[in-house]
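Data deposition worksheet. Section B asks for the primary sequence of the deposited chain exactly as it was used as input, without tags or linkers unless they were present during the calculation. Section C holds the resulting structure in token form. Section D is free text for depositor observations; keep each observation to a single sentence. Incomplete worksheets are returned to the depositor.
Section A, Depositor: J.P.
Section B:
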Amino acid sequence: QVQLVESGGGLVQPGGSLRLSCAASGISVSSNAMGWYRQAPGKQRELVARVRSGATTIYADSVKGRFTISRNNAKNTVDLQMNSLKPEDTAVYYCNTDPPLYVLGFPYWGQGTQVTVSS
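Section C:
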């Protein structure tokens, strides 16, 4: 059974940092391209960072230089280090494969973790 559990979100002031973590079960993060996505209120979900199976990382322009995605194959986790946070980074953050998983024909998403950047 596939399960992706995100954690580490919270309320942070502009300029602050957070580290998100995603614990995967039922899939191997080392065998899949993995990504962190986010969805802000009223906006579509977007992919902000991805790590390919060969460890190549790609970032959306909006987070480049501030966010770092990493993978721990031994723990089967994927992390997102977020620095220099801005109010526009406020969103629910999800991890998933890239492209996202389908389970029994339906898109699968975990519960996500809320990140709020506000003073």
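Section D:
The chain has a mean pLDDT of 96.
The two ends are 40 Å apart (CA to CA).
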